[in-house]
Every structure is written in C-alpha cells, then in structure tokens.
Amino acid sequence: MTEFSILGDTTEWRKDVEQRLRARYTAAGLGAAAAERKVESAHSGIGDWTVAEIMDAGTLVGHVAVVVADDNGTLAGRIGDLRVDALHAGRGHEGAARDWAERWCAERGAARLNVLLTEPAGELFDGYSARGQLRMRHVGSPPEPVGGVTARPMTQAEYPEWLTAQKAAYTGDIVRAGALSPEEAVLKSDRDFAKLIPEGLATPDNTFLVLETEGERIGTGWLKHGHLPGVTYGYSLYIQEQHRGKGYGRAAMAAGEQATLAAGDSALMFTVWGGNEVAMNLYTNTGYHVVEEHRSLALPRATT
C-alpha cells in the first residue's frame, strides 16, 4: 500500500530534483548556461513547495512535490516533481502519488492542477489536457528563402495594427488551450505585452518582421534574441489566413532562423498552444523537438 509522509528537510531532495532537471534540459539540446536558466525558472519558489516521501511498507520509493498559489487571479496547484525509483516503478505508486497531489491541492482550494513534463510520462497524465509545448531546433547555417518569401523590418506605421492583432491572437490561444477564461486571458495578454515590449519597436533585442512575396504582405514575425543564452524565442511567426496552405509556414520558419543567426544565437524556440495541431505538425515536420510540455486538470477531478 502506498503511503505519504511530509518531508521536513528538503535539502537533499532539492539537490536531486535540480540535478535531474538540469540533465533533462541538457539532453534536450540546451547548452549549460541555457539549461541552468531553465532550471531556475522551473523551480522558482521551490522553497514554498510541500514535498512528500512516497512510502511502500516503510520503504522510501520516491517523492512528490506540490504547491498551491495564485495564477492570474485563480488558485492553481502544481506538481513540481513526481518520481518513483526505477526499482519500484510500475507498481501503482505513480498513480497513487498523482491522486494524492490532486486531493492535496483541491483541499486547499485549487481550481486546477498544472504539471510540467520534461520527459515522457507514459499514461500517468493522459487525463490532463495539453496546454502547450516548448519546441526548439538548432540552426547550423542560414536557410535558403522558401517560396520567394522575403522578410523586412516592420515600420512604425505598421506596428499599432500588428500589436492589436497579436494581443487578440494570444488571448485566443490561451482560451483555446483551456488555460484561462476569456476575461483572465485578456488581462494576461495586456500584462505580458506591456512587460515584454515596453518600448514597442525600439525594445532592445527584439526583431519585428513583415513577410512578403512579390511585394505583397503575407505575414509578420516577432522574435526575442538572447531569451536564453544562445537561444532566440519566437513569440510569433504569423501567416495571414488568406495566404495559408501555400507552404508559407515553412518560409516564415526560415525567416525566423535567418534572424536568429543574424542576432548571434544558434537555436530557435517556440511555444505551441494545445489544440493547435496545424502548428504542432509544422514544427514536427521542420525538425523542432519538444523540450517541455505543460498539462493541466480541472479540480476536483470529475468522477465517472
């Protein structure tokens, strides 16, 4: 029978979990400095986590860590770690630990439970909705332009319309993924854009592109260079709806990779929201692998 005991001194557990996470990010292709930044981000507030030992007949078989905190105005739980030693894996301890985490968070008022996956979890979180994936690809040499598509800097006159459209698209992605309500998503969108590009087109280390073919505007791009050491983050590579289905998605990726190399970075990273199968397929087909995946579950778990 699986039992749980709250751990008092988490020092050794913290060393172990951070070492495991660092190894996973490195295996995913991040350099040492970038992997360290991701570990710091993933474990922000780790001192507030509640860590429980997973026990089987008095034997320690693993750990599960949880926390409940405000998330854009809603109480949300998080599973920060769930690990069962290989010797004891596959005996039901993983499912028991997940269920314990769900109950623990629900009892403390969490309306949903989030989990960050940095490696395949089998069927353990199949009942959780995929909210988004972080995808990345190393860029070794400048790609050739695709389909006659060219990229130029966005002008100040084009910026306001672009910003309005980007905020709306971002809000829609959040709602479609089921992460927040429409009202919460609008507030998050406003906050995030104000933080990310406070100086608009003049915000340092950002590239804003207009994509064209034969002089006709077909899309836009927004990239943040040095998001992680050596890594550019693509906030948006957008093809207008009337121009979709013509292979321009690949062209936009190529333009983003060219901008990445021009800025001195060697990898390009994107978030693709859950439910956007078209984007997921594009990233897969262009060699962008999954670095991490966010999933969540509404609490309390529905019973059948």
TrEMBL record:
One of its GO terms (molecular function) is dioxygenase activity. Keywords: Dioxygenase, Oxidoreductase, Transferase. It comes from the Bacteria. InterPro entries: Acyl_CoA_acyltransferase, GNAT_dom. Coiled coil: none annotated. It comes from Streptomyces nodosus. It holds the Pfam family Acetyltransf_1. Residues 149-304 form the N-acetyltransferase domain. This is Aromatic ring-opening dioxygenase LigA.
